[in-house]
Amino acid sequence: MDRNILIIYTGGTIGSVQTATGGLAPLDFSEIHRHVPELVQDHLTIEAVSFEPPIDSSNMGMAHWVELARMIHSRYDEFDGFVILHGTDTLAYTASALSFMLEGLHKPVILTGSQLPIGLPRTDGRENLLSAVEIASALRLDAPIVQEVAVYFGSSLYRGNRTHKASAESMQAIISPNLPPLAEAGVDIQFNEGILFRDPLMRLNVQETMESRIAWLPLFPGQSTEILKRILDWNDLKGLVLSTYGSGNAPTNTELKALLSDANNRGVSLVNVSQCSHGAVHPERYATAHMLRDCGVIPGGDMTTEAALTKLMHCLGQGLEGDDLRNTMRSNLRGEITKFSPVAPVR
Ligand code: ASP
Known about the structure:
Elements: E1 3-9, E2 16-18, E3 24-26, H1 32-35, E4 44-50, H2 62-74, E5 81-85, H3 91-101, E6 102-103, E7 109-112, H4 125-137, E8 139-140, E9 143-144, E10 149-153, E11 156-159, E12 164-165, E13 174-175, E14 183-185, E15 189-191, E16 205-206, E17 214-218, H5 225-232, E18 239-244, H6 254-265, E19 269-274, H7 287-294, E20 298-299, H8 305-317, H9 322-330
Parallel strand pairs: 1-4, 1-5, 5-7, 7-10, 17-18, 18-19, 19-20
Antiparallel strand pairs: 2-3, 6-16, 8-9, 10-11, 11-14, 12-13, 14-15
The structure holds aspartic acid.
């Protein structure tokens, strides 16, 4: 069957090629077929567009996420799948944000990038791009196999809102600590079909509004409560993600407790995620987690920090508050969180 794929280049390492003199120059994406001739295939039509100018992903922000969501929305019926080429630094944030913005998605949106420019002999960009296009084209019984925002990197396809950049060196830079790969590319691409996400909403609906008045605070031993006090002094603050220890623990500190209770009472949404990249927040497991639970902090389960931050931006942006926001943060919107059965307290 003929497949039509839109490649959107946002910027990042992947988009450079070697010049005749041996230097690196930005790739002209309108000529992508010339640089990656393997993209010329029967039954495959590729259109490539580029951010103008392309950006290093450190400069990614909400306006760029909206731009990407709108591009996909406006060309949704024209293409069978979308491949977004993105710098690796904030790729996990963009993948998470897009997963929440694109409700009712039933086509593949595959983000990828590379550690080495596509124009270098040892590049990982060529394989990442070609496999991402193959995955974006893949069908089962005439329907796209992948119908969600996913990230292809280093031979694996991951759910986008489960990803995290774990290495600035390795070709396996991106990991998915709490969910196995959706697919592995060996000789064939093997999909793990049992865990692919299917959105119950049938029509694509772009939810653009994201709340930017949120903060993120990792805890560390010896930390002064002054820093939390300063953050909470921001009158306009709408939400705060706390990165706590282990399975969601924080120091037993009356000042910390009073600050968090006050913030919760004045309507700041507080979310608890673990500093451990693998595992989940269990608010009942240790006494050191009970304080956070008693202050109204929402347990973030096994969400990555990237997913928790962008989900909070999304939920607040949709105008949710109080119990609606609590319940939505705890529920599974796009496969970003695993439902846990309650665990018995161990201490
Ligand atoms: N700094 C670059 C970026 O994230 C690194 C990369 O392209 O992977 O845009």
